[in-house]
Design goal:
By secondary structure, the protein is α+β, with helices and mostly antiparallel strands. It has one domain: Beta Barrel (Elongation Factor Tu (Ef-tu), domain 3). The protein is globular. 28% of the residues are buried.
């Protein structure tokens, strides 16, 4: 599945947990299942994609109130607010679920990141 959209400000929970995310406001409906994905993200003006881990859903451990699409770009540090992006979901890693607190969520995010990195690094892609 591929979506396009713009990066907007969120609640910064990912940043506080050590997993900063690009909060994507999709241009249209998102039809995939809620959960965590390994994905490729193209930033406007860049010819090659960046590796990312995506969470799509309602954040049952720290509810947002509305469904969100958030991408944690691997090995990236920069300001993306207002940028246009294209996001391609490549592999479903796990369904969304509630954790017993933020420490448990952070531990699972570390495992998810390693799973995403392992999958993406195994692809025949030249990453940005």
């Amino acid at each position: 599945m591929v979506i396009t959209g713009s990066i907007e400000h969120g609640k910064a929970l990912g940043r506080r947990l050590g997993f900063p995310t690009a909060n994507i406001r999709p241009d249209g409906d998102v039809a995939s299942a809620n959960g965590v994905y390994a994905a490729a993200l193209w930033l406007e003006g860049e010819p090659r994609p960046r590796r990312c881990m995506v969470n799509q859903g309602v954040h049952p451990t720290a509810p947002e109130g509305k469904p969100t699409v958030e991408a944690h770009l691997l090995d990236f540090d920069g300001d993306l607010y207002g940028m246009r992006v294209r996001l391609e979901y490549l592999k479903f890693l796990r369904p969304e679920r509630r954790f017993d607190g933020l420490d448990a969520l952070k531990a699972q995010l570390s495992r998810d990141l390693e799973a995403a990195r392992g999958y993406l690094d195994g692809l025949d892609v030249t990453w940005a």
